[in-house]
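Structure tokens please, single chain.
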Amino acid sequence: MYQYDPERTPNPEEWLALDEQERIILVEDFHDAARIKLPNLTAHAAFHAVVENQIAEGLESVLRAMERLAKQGLTRHDSVHAIAYVLVAHINDLFNSKDDAATSQARYNAAVERITANNWRKM
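Here you go.
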């Protein structure tokens, strides 16, 4: 895999075969080439990569959200952002949580299931 395009789903085997840092660099390179200005490119790229990992690994809540958000009119790129937003909020919540891993995962899945194009557009 030599390029990342958030509007196209990466081949799961190729994506997961990459080192995590390689994935992040590919996402950074896309945003640089597209001249998208971001406050923290590396953090943005890391969250993109995590969502792409979840898609490649077949996390059902994320796959359903991607399909739902597309049907609601979001681009694939914006759908990745919407899910990444949920992920950021989830990670923030983890700092104050005493949930075990299974409960934490269930909370994340439920939050991903609730994201819609309309509430993403309002953020």
